[in-house]
């Protein structure tokens, strides 16, 4: 967990990267976590292609689990977690956090498009300022 900040954390995530924003009284700390994953490609073909696809799918799923574990390790101390993102990664991270016993700390899950780090930080700041009133 990032030091010297309040325990409100926003995570914008897709399968390529996560941007973690810890909102504090004097600003926020922003941390990026790359997934280091190639784009998930689907193939069509016969039985041989299916088994190769199964292997790729398993590798993809294992890589995602490691990625979500890395993100979770950085936000484990958060009291409130806001999840943001354009696709299914935010839901997959939500399920990972629930399996880790952190589900009750998730305050909201929102679908948002691609955003700059500054836009993500502003959205997190705005959400937690609004939720505290």
Notes on the structure:
This protein has helices at residues 47-75, 89-99, 117-131; strands spanning 8-13, 17-24, 27-34, 80-85, 106-111. The protein is elongated. Helix content is 41%, strand content 26%. A hairpin with a 3-residue loop joins strand 1 (8-13) and strand 2 (17-24). The two termini are 25 Å apart. It has a single domain (8-131), classed as eRF1 domain 2 (Nucleotidyltransferase, domain 5), CATH 3.30.420. With 133 residues, the chain is α/β, with parallel strands linked by helices.
Question: Which keywords apply here?
Answer:
single chain, 133 residues, alpha/beta, Nucleotidyltransferase, domain 5, 5-stranded mixed β-sheet, 5 strands, 26% strand, disordered N terminus
List the helices and strands and how they pair.
Layout: E1 8-13, E2 17-24, E3 27-34, H1 47-75, E4 80-85, H2 89-99, E5 106-111, H3 117-131
Parallel strand pairs: 1-4, 4-5
Antiparallel strand pairs: 1-2, 2-3
Give the strand tally. Answer: 5
Amount of beta strand: 25-35%
> What is the count of distinct domains?
1
> Could you give the order of the helices and strands?
EEEHEHEH
Helix content: 40-55%
Biggest sheet statistics: 5 strands, mixed
Query: How many helices does DSSP assign?
Result: 3
Strand order of the largest sheet: 3-2-1-4-5
* Multimeric organization: single chain
The assigned structural class equals alpha/beta
Model regions low in confidence, pLDDT < 50 over at least 5 residues: 1-5
**Beginning-to-end CA distance, first to last residue:** 25 Å
């Amino acid at each position: 967990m990032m030091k010297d900040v309040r325990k409100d954390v926003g995570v914008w995530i897709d399968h390529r990267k996560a941007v973690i924003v810890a909102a504090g009284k004097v600003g926020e700390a922003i941390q990026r976590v790359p997934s280091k994953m190639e784009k998930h490609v689907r193939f069509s073909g016969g039985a041989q292609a299916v088994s190769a696809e199964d292997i790729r799918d398993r590798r993809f799923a294992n890589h995602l689990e490691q990625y979500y574990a890395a993100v979770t390790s950085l936000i484990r101390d958060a009291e409130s977690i806001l999840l943001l993102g354009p696709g299914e990664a935010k839901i997959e991270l939500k399920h990972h956090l629930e399996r880790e016993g952190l589900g009750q700390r998730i305050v909201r899950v929102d679908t948002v498009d691609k955003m700059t780090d500054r836009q993500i930080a502003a959205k997190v700041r705005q959400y937690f300022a609004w939720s505290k009133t």
